[in-house]
Design brief:
Strand order of the largest sheet: 1-5-6-4-3-2
Distance between the termini: 23 Å
Number of helices: 3
Largest sheet: 6 strands, mixed
Helix content: 25-40%
């Protein structure tokens, strides 16, 4: 289900300050931040960055099938969000990952003005148009936030942490 609910106070972590550190400290959450603007090989870069975060957070190496499936879902959702920004918004600016004991939140910020949505009706046999359908199916929640003082948007998705 897509929502556009605003972030709760403290939900997005600290604003970027231009530092090279990829950690984005938050209250009760561990965070990572990757600037993607101007980078090449953006989708593999985002996946590698996310995979390393999953190792750091203990999701990988997977100790069982549930953890392995959860990690694969995270990597797929990140790939879809970043690819969507590449195809429909002139590329992503930043990837932010936030993790606590219950939820992993992925945020991709871009400068595009469009509104992502699953293509309806979904036609599984046709090429293309599956990205947001996949995000919708795999995630607990997803949505779009905008900052009225800046161009673009942040597309976010949340997955439950494995138990």
């Amino acid at each position: 289900m897509s929502t556009t609910r605003p972030h709760m106070p403290g939900d997005r972590g600290q604003d970027p300050d231009g530092a090279a550190d990829d950690r984005a400290p938050t209250t009760g959450r561990d965070g990572r931040r990757l600037r993607l603007s101007g980078a090449s090989g953006i989708v593999p870069l985002a996946r590698d960055f996310t995979r390393q975060a999953l190792y750091d957070w203990g999701w990988l190496p997977a100790s069982d099938g549930e953890r392995r499936a959860a990690a694969e879902d995270v990597l797929l959702v990140v790939s879809e969000l970043v690819t969507n920004a590449c195809l429909h918004a002139d590329g992503p600016e930043e990837l932010v990952l936030l993790c606590d004991q219950k939820v992993l939140r992925m945020e991709v910020t871009d400068l595009g003005g469009g509104e992502p949505a699953p293509r309806t009706p979904h036609r599984a046999g046709r090429p293309g148009g599956h990205g947001m359908f996949i995000v919708q199916r795999l995630c607990q929640d997803w949505g779009v936030t905008r900052d009225d003082s800046a161009p673009g948007k942040t597309v976010w998705a949340e997955l439950a942490a494995p138990s």
